Amino acid sequence: MEKTMTQTDTQVKEKNKTKAQTETQTESRAEAQENEYVWKNGHPTEEEVLCQSSCMGFFRLFNNLRKQRGIKLEQLVNGVMTRRMLSTIIKGDGYFSRECWEFLMHRMGALTDYFEAIVSRKELEDWREREDICLLVCESPKEARTKLEAYEKAHPKMTSMAKLFCLKIEWLLKKETASPQVLYELACEAVYCTVKEEWQEQLSGLWLAPAELEAILLVSWSLGLLGETEKALFLFHQVWNYPKKKGWEDRMTQLLCPQAALVGMQLYQKLGEFQKAFDIGNSALELLRAQNSQRYAYPLFLSLIDVGEKLKKTNRAPENLQQLKDFRDAFQVVYQENHLPCMRVWQRGSVENCYDVSLVLKRMRLSLEKSQEEICIDENGNEFLQARHLSRIEKGENRPSKENFQLLTKKMGRTLDWIMPILETDSIETLSMRQDMIYLTNMRKWDEVQKILDVLCKKMGTEACQKPRIQQEIQSIDAMSLFRMKMILPKEAQKREEKALACTFPLEWLSRKELPFLKREEGMIIGDIANLYGIMGNIECAEKLFQKLYDVYHPQQQFLKINAPACSVILAEYSKFLGDVAQYQKTLEIDQNNLEHELAAYYIVFSGELLYNKAWDYYELDKETYKDANRREFICAQRFAEFCKNEMLVDFFEQRAKKYLN
What we know:
The protein is mostly helical. It has a domain at about 425-505. The protein is built from 31 helices and 3 strands. Helix 10 runs parallel beside helix 13, helix 13 (about 255-270) packs antiparallel against helix 14 (about 275-290) and helix 24 (about 490-500) packs antiparallel against helix 25. The longest helix is centred in the N-terminal third of the chain and has 40 residues, at about 1-40. The termini are far apart.
């Protein structure tokens, strides 16, 4: 069997190597033609989303990170695009799709959560189509097959990254019916979509994204089905250890670790090493809990409980076995209530910080109360864009060129880039520290927030701290942490928050009938200001501001069917405000809508609070009629807070338990 498998391995390698070389040659010719077209015409067509020289802040960070990691440009782009194409983009003479720049950032081990991006509606629609397939694969495979075929038909000229996605889905759909050999070959074909180097012997010398490592896990899984457990384990450990060897931070590692653990658990169970299987799965689960992430948490619960019961029979029951069962039950209830599958596939990245360019431009125009014709006239009275073209852009039918995008946003009072780091910095480390502060803010650990803020300010230096977005972040975090620690009064906190907002957003815009496009931090600060109005008893101002924020975020929430980070916080605060003025039915509607969209993304940091809000809504509406509902929501809130290790929330729920559970 060993000899036969070695021959099979060689045949598959040669087959895929030949195919990869052919594809590379074909892609190179196509890319050369595309580059020639770009250069001849001076700029890409308006059908492309351009990420040109206006994105130099992003490109500086991109190049700094590449050099810091010691990655050659050829290594980084191999299998995704040519070096010439990337060089052209960086120089400002090409375009960068969201799919592509996210993939390359992931190869460098960097999260794209640290950036905001304005993208075309087509790109977001493509993401949504793939997400719908992911939701169906495990529990409704026939529907998933139909949607996959429709997606492939609609994209006859796929990128290598899209091909990789489709082949992985194909593997999962064939898992129960195809032979192990067919699955092995399909998994290898998926890997070779983007990995052109030799990978079966050693991964540490390659620069791979989580999506590529997932495909390699499918190869490992296939080898296990073929009975080649030793080879399968070797490949599994290559993937399992990859993030540590490449220095990935935990936020990045959670994109890969849980699905790797599920494969490793299966392999070690085949060997009868149940304790080893449990330890692998439990370490992955603890990583998810520390990151407030639900990626593959439910299948991990099931696998860990199954292995735990086997250990129990040998008097080695895990201490957290009952906790795992409680988590499983709570997640199942919440998923079913919110019409979500318990078992699903997760895409490699998220679009939480991405904004539809059509909605961005339309919102900015409506905020100014200008017609399309008025917006298309420059300061000299000349028409730089036809109104009917702007109409098509706002409908999502067309995408603006770089020049028109810049002219439109400038005309409407904002200077925006296609890709924007959350802070004006060339350092991923700085953005990571900023994310640490946000996490601690969500956990209400205000003392720790202040400590990191002090370290961050010293690290960046006085000059950098004066940059608008950095200054805004510092002032806002400082204001709200001091307020939450009861060191300043609401009025003082409001003044400080308004000062922070003014760093990037003129305060007079708050009085407009409709707010313009908001960057992430701007929306959060305006939500804080509205909340402070409510605390001070200025109900009318609070309600108007919350409603304006709702009008900003609701359209994109309905389009993408997930929450933007600011959206979760703002709607939760809006709900609490409405509850305080006894509008419980509207509060329940907002909380339910917010929770459904929160659960559609992998970060669930606010889910415990949202579940508690629903319990409170039911209690206040009619505690007897909704007794079962408020009890159920409260128990789930407790479990979600416990899962996310939110100690403050866990303690708060313990104090409220008598009210909801008796």
